[in-house]
Write a structure and sequence with these properties.
Blueprint (H helix, E strand, L loop, with lengths): L2 H6 L4 H25 L5 H5 L2 H7 L7 E2 L4 E8 L4 E2 L4 E10 L4 E2 L4 E2 L2 E2 L1 H5 L7 E2 L2 E3 L4 E2 L4 E2 L4 E2 L4 E2 L4 E2 L8 E4 L2 E3 L2
Parallel strand pairs: 1-3, 2-4, 3-5, 4-6, 4-9, 5-10, 6-11, 9-12, 10-13, 11-14, 13-15
Antiparallel strand pairs: 7-8, 15-16
Length: 182
C-alpha cells in the first residue's frame, strides 16, 4: 500500500488533510524551482533554506549547505563556501573548510575510521585525525577525503577521487588514490 492510501485509511482526517497540504506545498515549491532555475530537488532541499542552515550551524557569511548534507561532530566552514547535496561532513575528529570552497555533490569527508576497531573485534578504539581544506578549493563530485588529510589553498580535486594523503597549495589532483596531475 502506498503512503497516501495508508494515511487515508488511518481514520485520521487531520493526518489526511496535513498530507494533502504537504503534497500541495511540494507541488508549488517544485513548480517554482523548476520555472525559476530549471531544476527539481528533494522536498527538504526545496523547503528549507540552505543559507539559513549554514548560519544556524555557525558557518561563515554567504555559505550554504543543503539539507541532504549529513554533519557530525565539530565542523567549521568559512565564508562563501558551497556545500552540495548528498554530502557527508564528519567532524568527529575536527574538520575545517576554508573560504570560497566548492564541496560538490556526493563528497564524503571523514575525520575518523573504524578499521582497527572492526578487525580487533571491537577491542581497539576508533581512530581520529583532523582534516583541513584551505581557502579557494574545489572538491569534485563523489570524492572521498580520508582522516588526517590537509588540502592546501587553491587545490582542485578531480571527481571520484580518493584523497588519503595531504597535498600542498595549488595542487591539481585526481584518482584513487589521488595523485598530482599538474
Amino acid at each position: 500500500m502506498d503512503r497516501k492510501k495508508a494515511i487515508e485509511s488511518s481514520n485520521s482526517p487531520e493526518l489526511a488533510e496535513l498530507y494533502r497540504l504537504l503534497e500541495l506545498l511540494k507541488e508549488k515549491l517544485d513548480g517554482s524551482m523548476k520555472e525559476q532555475f530549471s531544476r527539481s530537488l528533494p522536498f527538504a532541499d526545496v523547503l528549507f533554506d540552505r543559507w539559513q542552515r549554514a548560519k544556524f550551524l555557525g558557518f561563515g557569511e554567504g555559505t550554504s549547505v543543503y539539507d541532504s548534507c549529513c554533519l557530525f561532530g565539530e565542523v567549521k566552514v568559512g565564508k562563501n563556501t558551497w556545500v552540495g547535496p548528498f554530502t557527508i561532513l564528519d567532524g568527529s575528529g575536527g574538520l575545517e573548510i576554508g573560504n570560497n570552497c566548492s564541496i560538490s555533490a556526493g563528497v564524503h569527508i571523514y575525520t575518523h575510521d573504524t578499521v582497527d576497531w572492526a578487525i580487533s573485534g571491537g577491542e581497539k578504539p576508533f581512530n581520529y585525525e583532523p582534516v583541513k581544506i584551505g581557502d579557494n578549493c574545489y572538491i569534485g563530485p563523489g570524492s572521498i577525503i580520508a582522516k588526517g588529510v590537509e588540502i592546501g589553498k587553491g587545490t582542485v580535486v578531480g571527481a571520484n577521487s580518493f584523497v588519503n594523503k595531504s597535498f600542498p597549495a595549488g595542487s591539481r589532483i585526481a584518482g584513487s588514490p589521488a595523485r598530482s596531475i599538474n
